[in-house]
Amino acid sequence: AQTVTQSQPEMSVQEAETVTLSCTYDTSESDYYLFWYKQPPSRQMILVIRQEAYKQQNATENRFSVNFQKAAKSFSLKISDSQLGDAAMYFCAYRSPNSNYQLIWGAGTKLIIKP
Amino acid sequence: DAGVIQSPRHEVTEMGQEVTLRCKPISGHDYLFWYRQTMMRGLELLIYFNNNVPIDDSGMPEDRFSAKMPNASFSTLKIQPSEPRDSAVYFCASSSPLNTEAFFGQGTRLTVV
């Protein structure tokens, strides 16, 4: 069975600085999808970025980018130029193409932005 | 599209009462998921539907929990009778073959006293 591990319960970063959130996963599949979701205090789960395992290029969405290391089964999220609005819980999630869209979730990392 | 719509946003009820949570998925999405989020257990998948049919309800904690999807635009999650340990945030999410990710509603915060 697949598992997702986020080893950092909490991270803090100074506003305008860069922070990296880590995520590792375990799977025997070669094709799959990885996601980072953000959950601000409003508690809505918002998709930040997605990565298809068959793509070698790391996904990027504005200030958010990932470092996808398939062999190491690592999927870290880098947030550049951190803003106060980035403060939230961040969840890493895995989806198998054969799973009927079921997501395997990490425990989450709470990101604190220091003004 | 307005996104996934859940109601109510907050529910406070007394132990033993019936609670019904509602969800309207994004139009055209044929997968619907119900999740529960607690501090202790994180996000748990309770049940999911495909084309209104329940596919996997192995995450439903007890017989007190039931879910229905009478049509493509509406689903309910019912707890009867409710207990204090059911207090959590309940999310509904939907997806379609055109998307790789799931889209979430704003959740219902349930408090059972």
Determine the strand fraction of chain A and express it as a percent band: over 45%
Tell me which protein chains meet in the greatest interface and how many residues each side has.
A-B, 20 and 22 residues
Q: How big is the Rg of chain B? A: 13 Å
Poorly predicted segments of chain A: none
Q: What characterizes the major β-sheet of chain B? A: 7 strands, mixed
Rounded radius of gyration of chain A (Å): 14 Å
One letter per element, helices H and strands E, the order of chain B comes to EEEEEEEEEEE
Which spans of chain B have pLDDT < 50 for at least 5 consecutive residues?
none
- Which term fits the overall shape of chain B? globular
Can you summarize the main beta sheet of chain A? 6 strands, mixed
Order of helices and strands of chain A: EEEEEEEEEEEE
Shape of chain A: globular
Separation, N- and C-terminal Cα atoms of chain A: 41 Å
Number of H/I helices of chain B: 0
Kindly estimate the percentage of residues of chain B that lie in beta strands according to DSSP.
Answer: over 45%
Distance between the termini of chain B: 36 Å
Quaternary form: heterodimer
Beta strand count of chain B: 11
Give me the number of helical elements of chain A. Answer: 0
Q: Class by helix and strand content of chain B? A: mainly beta
Helicity range of the residues of chain B?
under 10%
Give the helices and strands, then pairings.
The complex is a heterodimer of chains A (115) and B (113).
Chain A: E1 3-5, E2 10-14, E3 19-21, E4 24-26, E5 33-39, E6 46-52, E7 60-61, E8 64-69, E9 74-79, E10 88-95, E11 104-105, E12 109-114
Parallel strand pairs in A: 2-12
Antiparallel strand pairs in A: 1-4, 3-9, 5-6, 5-10, 7-8, 8-9, 10-11, 10-12
Chain B: E1 5-7, E2 10-13, E3 19-24, E4 31-38, E5 42-50, E6 53-56, E7 65-71, E8 74-79, E9 88-95, E10 103-104, E11 108-112
Parallel strand pairs in B: 2-11
Antiparallel strand pairs in B: 1-3, 3-8, 4-5, 4-9, 5-6, 7-8, 9-10, 9-11
